[in-house]
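INTERNAL AUDIT FORM
Audit reference: QA-55
Scope: verify that the stored structure record matches its stored sequence.
Auditor: D.O.
Record contents follow.
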Amino acid sequence: MGMTQPHRSMLRTAQFAAIAALLGCAPVIEQSQGDGPGRQSAFFESFPTLLFASIASRCQADTDRLTRPSQSELICESLPTPEAAAALILEFDGDVEELPVLVTTLSAEEEAGGFAVTTEYYYLVPQRSGEVAEIRFAEPRVQRTIRRALSAAGGVIR
């Protein structure tokens, strides 16, 4: 049950693009609440079991935390590189005592004739005030990689 190259690349590319965005190499960084950059959906005729297993298998590092709130949802939280963490803390007035976290989610919702599958990626940056800022960014290269991974798993991009 190995992961295909598009699935491996999806998570790596998201982290690399985030680093590039934070260091000024990418065109758009947005701070937002709710829907926005970093979200992609696809339709699957049947539940994408292999896609869920593949993404879960990539969340295995010692610093990663995988949660499965339900059979149709997974959340992978991972620490960014030290350079990316420093950039996030400086750029978004973060708390130096708590590290930012890259969150990647995958969820499926049953609908007529199949499942709507949505993936999201964003950073959570603890603030000095005690609150947590959700930082989303628009990175076309990451979006293309995610679309390819969803398509390779049998999804029809929305």
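Auditor finding: record pair retrieved intact. Residues 1-35 have pLDDT under 50 and may be disordered.
Action required: none
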